[in-house]
Amino acid sequence: MKYIPNVLSFSRIILSIVLFYLNPEKLPFILIYIICGITDVLDGFIARKINATSEFGAKLDSVADVIIISVILFKFIPILKLNFYMMIWIIIIALIKVSSIIVIFIRFKQFGMIHTYLNKLTGLLIFIYPISNYFISCKFYLYLVFIIATITALEEILICSTIASLDLDKKSYFK
């Protein structure tokens, strides 16, 4: 039973690789993508419920998140026809996120990403986008995601730079 959360995280990695080969504008992509989202919610929930949380599980979840977000960016950036400034904005957000990982590694000698409320909100907004885009395209929604993702990345780098000890489950800079 205690391995179920890690199996779910690992399955998200495998399913993300499958998504890489599917057309993001077709139903099979959306269905597998929804399954990925369900595994993302369930892995942490089940781990906490059966008292099977672990450092390895948190890192596996972070790796799965990075992989699926990378696949989504790779698949949707060509479809979205983003302007130059939006592409630069994505690069800046990615650089801040990578900087957070580097800061954690330098300060605490380990890989990690902090699971803040804003990270969860950003993940939810990113998760919703491909599903909503299947039905209707909306640039306003993209700007909302970019703004929230920017605030999230800045909060994360602030936390990584100021915390005394590593807590990957720190919910907010203010908590």
- Characterize the largest beta sheet: strand count, sense, and whether it forms a barrel: none
Rg measurement, Å: 16 Å
What is the string of SSEs from the N terminus onward?
Answer: HHHHHH
- By helix and strand content, what is the structural category? mainly alpha
Task: Give the low-confidence spans.
Answer: none
Number of strands: 0
Helix share of residues? over 70%
Question: Helix count, per DSSP?
Answer: 6
Distance between the termini: 31 Å
List descriptors.
single chain, 6 helices
Task: Summarize it.
By secondary structure, the chain is an all-alpha fold.
What features would you describe in this structure?
With 175 residues, the chain is mostly helical. 77% of the residues lie in helices and 0% in strands. It is built from 6 helices and no strands. Helix 1 packs antiparallel against helix 2, helix 4 runs parallel beside helix 6 (139-162) and helix 5 runs antiparallel to helix 6 (139-162). The longest helix has 26 residues, at 55-80. The model has no long low-confidence stretch (mean pLDDT 91).
